[in-house]
Amino acid sequence: MHLAYPAVLAVLLFCTGLYGVLARRNAILVLMSVELMLNAVNLNLVAFDVWLRDALHAGQALTLFTIAIAAAEIGIGLSIVLMVYRNRGTSDVDRLRDTAEATGPTGPAGPEDTAPDGAADATDPDATAAAQKAEATA
Amino acid sequence: MTTPTLAVLVPLLPFLGAVAGLLLGRTAPGFVRPLAVLPTVTSAVIAVLIAVRQGGGTGGGIRPVDTATELTPTGSVPIELALHIDGFAVLVAVLVGLVASCVQLYSTGYLRDDPRYPSYAALVSLFTSAMFLVVYSGDLMVLLVGWEVMGICSYFLVGHYWETPEARAASLKAFLVTKLGDVPFLIGLFALAADTGSFRITKVLDAVASGGLDHPTVIALLLLAGVAGKSAQFPLHTWLPDAMAGPTPVSALIHAATMVAAGVYFVARLLPVFAASAAALVVLAVMAAVTMVGSALAALAQDDIKRVLAYSTVGQLGYMTGALAVGDRGAAVFHLLSHGAFKALLFLAAGVIIHAAGTNSLAVMSRMTGLRDRIPDAFWTMTVALLALAAIPPFSGFFSKEAVLGAAEHAATGHAESVPGSAGWIVLVSGLLTAVLTAAYATRLWLLAFRPPVTAPRPAGAPTAAGTVEAPDHGRQPVVMNVVLWVLAVPSLAFGITVGVLPDWFDGRSLTPTLTTSVLATGLTLVGGLVTYGAWRHTTALAARVPMGAVAAHPDAEPALSEAEAIATHTPAYGSIASAPDPADPGRLLLGPLHRHAAAGFRMDAVYSALFVRPTQFLAGVVRFLDREVVDTYVRGAGTLPRWLGAAVRRAQTGNVQTYLSALLAGSLVLAVAAVLVAAGA
Amino acid sequence: MTLAAAAPYGFLSPTGVEVSFLLVGLVTFAAALVTVTTKQLVHAALWLVVALGGLAVEYLLLTAEFIAWVQVLIYVGSVVVLLLFGLMLTKAPIGRSPDADSGNRWAALTVAVAAAATLVWVVVDAFRTQWIDLDAPQGTTAVTGAMLFQHWVLPFEALSVLLLAALVGAIVLSRKADAKADAKADAGTGGAESPADAAGPADKERQR
């Protein structure tokens, strides 16, 4: 089998995951996208291991380790997301903006009560969308 | 001890006293008074000792003592710690020692409860030390050190009552105006040293005698500016009347007897330098004439007793500069000595009067009865001093003033070599005119202060007549103050008898009054006094109709408190610091329409304001405009660009992790592509 | 080095394995795409199952048998279930949610497409002539067990420690969140505006 097939498939899956990480709003969906990226790497590892016929099978061993680590990561990630959700009432990544540049010397503030004038254009549609989402949920 | 050693001790002792007083003033208040009085008195005694050794009245005296030591090389023109002790120096030193001792003694009573007495006494000691330094110094730079130390002491002491705005303004004005003269003075000293190659007075005089002075007029005029500032000569005299906001002893010591005489003394020391330029002598004569006449007119219009005396000081200093202008420094220093004694006495007596009357306003005193009986010592000594001031024959002022007028006549008739006759005439005429005015204001002062209104004849036992007030009862004046008055009254009374021996101490020129000027001047003096008396008889009736009086009575407090309050309340009570709207003032009648201008010192302050203050303020405004609107614009512009960039960068800080991550990955992607391309290209 | 000369096996005559790999790969890729684009959050998780399952088939095709079963067990069996639990616990909306994608979508698309283009170009350029010989199976369970417990036993044990740490960490995080949530609930009823409430009234309503 041509090595290019698994390699290209891995690339496509990785970039799909990349898009998901960058574009998804819900933190759990972001985690799913991360899983996709990890799996793309796993595919690469397995393909190259098989291609190289490694005596130690380092690629496959590493794949197994990656799977285990991914499981741990998903556990920790989910617990973090849960805690954020309990504290903030949301798990939307783009609404967790405590590190945004504040407009005044009053220190960090929530993104909605003091939106920086520069970010106002970007946040306003999101805020309205979030409100709609909240209504839909309720 | 040798004479130089003693002479070094004279300035050193008060200096050490001042340092010790400043250091111990807070921790050991008990030592302050001895530390103030003892070094000064000791210095005065040593000064007398030096005078006895040096002059001794032995006919021609001994050769002047000249000794010098160089502390460190100072470049092309050496600066040495030099002594130059001749007849002038020893006599002026005796005067300084006497007046300073009297003032220190007087201050112990006058400022006995003042919380700032330690620093006050230390500053007076420091001032005394500086004045001794000026008197004995044989090096112009060392003299300048003493000169400037006196200036700063004067600044601090004028501002002693710094709680009052008058004192603050007066101290600043005194400092700035004298500095205005000191800058050309310093340049003049440098020019003099450049021409003669030395700061030593003897060498300078030798060089001048051998014609080594290239620019005599320029140097003389530059030095004259400093002299005019320090000795309060026109046009730099305006600080002296305002300086009366200081305590009375300070006025007596610094602004009457010693510091203001330093300028005269300096010219006397370097008279050959001035005599080398006829133009400088004429300028000096005109300056003296304007000063004399103007200040005498102004003195006639003042209401504050101390301002009368201050203008009188300016006028008497004018006599001295007049004597210098006609080339007779013996007469000048003679008048300096006698004036120092009687003017110090006048001021100290005025301090007693102000305390006893509770006011410094002559208008209020003229309505006061019984003032004479409360302070008999001050009354009698002040009478003596005023007679001396008016130059009535047996008193010291007569002899010294006649010496000046005689010298002027000598020059006017062309008998003095190297002195232009015009200078002699200017001094003579203005001196005679001033004699009339001096008699007038002395009489006015005496009448207003001590004579109750004549139109208040009241039956025995009747209450006080309308418009008059009884002098407040302050009890007896401190003994030490009265003693000092009598000590100073002696030279005022009898200094004239030394007229026969004094030439031995000076240049040897006779100081005996000449017949013509004596008769003329004494006659004019009597005319001035009598006219004033007549005017007073005429106006005093008005006093009863216009009651005035704001009296600060503090029977138990120190005398200085009354004075400070009197100074502070004069402007609110009478509308001006200098005059009072008193129709009973004979000066008003005598001066007529001139009174208004004379009271304001002929608007010199307004002239200065227009000439210097407003342009300076305008320039300051321009500079402020340039700084704020032009320079700051660039500064702000330099700040704006980074601020805009910062704002732009701040927009990137949205707090959205996904945005950050996108930028990060896009950046790494670009880097990766670049790396691949480079690798492929290579 | 031309394609024909270097490669004994041409792209135009695919083997059966290759055809299978391509087809399954297409399905996998499509499932992944749906996963990251769908508006329905639960569907995304389910499409993720398809994509992960597809990958397991690809592992089988690459003769990595053990990996494939582990993939199915762990990913499909546990990770996706965990994710679904997470979705439920965060009260993710069931049904279409119009705002599943953030405002960063176009930037993300640009970056992803550029990355894909670059990587595909590089990978194809590098490996287009390479051939995987699949005659001998490379990842049977016996082989994998032997290499795992002969050569990789130490990392394996270290990994178990890591998993334990992750387990403890997850528990600790959850417990803290509980305590805080309780404290906040107590304080919130008192009317105090705590910083966490800055999310806005809409979220508070949703919490209720």
Automatic annotation (TrEMBL), chain A:
GO terms for molecular function: NADH dehydrogenase (quinone) (non-electrogenic) activity. It is found in: Cell membrane; Membrane. Residues 95-138 are annotated as: Disordered. The keyword DNA damage does not apply. It is a multi-pass membrane protein. Residues 109-138 have a biased composition (Low complexity). The chain crosses the membrane at residues 61-85. NCBIfam families: PRK05715.1-2. This is NADH-quinone oxidoreductase subunit K. It comes from Streptomyces cavernicola. The gene is nuoK.
UniProtKB/TrEMBL annotation, chain B:
The chain crosses the membrane at residues 6-24, 31-52, 81-105, 117-136, 142-162, 174-193, 213-229, 250-268, 274-301, 308-326, 332-357, 378-399, 419-442, 483-503, 515-536, 660-680. It comes from the Bacteria. Residues 137-408 form the NADH:quinone oxidoreductase/Mrp antiporter transmembrane domain. Pfam families: Proton_antipo_M, Proton_antipo_N. Its main location: membrane. Keywords: Membrane, Oxidoreductase, Transmembrane, Transmembrane helix. NCBIfam families: NDH_I_L (TIGR01974). It comes from Streptomyces cavernicola. This is NADH-quinone oxidoreductase subunit L. It is a multi-pass membrane protein. Gene3D superfamilies: 1.20.5.2700. GO terms for molecular function: oxidoreductase activity. Its EC number is 1.6.5.-. The keyword Magnesium does not apply.
From TrEMBL, chain C:
Residues 183-208 are annotated as: Disordered. Coiled coil: none annotated. The keyword Transmembrane applies. The keyword 4Fe-4S does not apply. It is found in: Cell membrane. It catalyses: a quinone + NADH + 5 H(+)(in) = a quinol + NAD(+) + 4 H(+)(out). Its EC number is 7.1.1.-. It holds the Pfam family Oxidored_q3. The chain crosses the membrane at residues 19-37, 44-62, 68-94, 106-124, 152-174. InterPro entries: NADH_UbQ/plastoQ_OxRdtase_su6, Nuo/plastoQ_OxRdtase_6_NuoJ. It is a multi-pass membrane protein. Keywords: Cell membrane, Membrane, NAD, Quinone, Transmembrane, Transmembrane helix. Belongs to the complex I subunit 6 family. NDH-1 shuttles electrons from NADH, via FMN and iron-sulfur (Fe-S) centers, to quinones in the respiratory chain. Couples the redox reaction to proton translocation (for every two electrons transferred, four hydrogen ions are translocated across the cytoplasmic membrane), and thus conserves the redox energy in a proton gradient. This is NADH-quinone oxidoreductase subunit J. It comes from Streptomyces cavernicola.
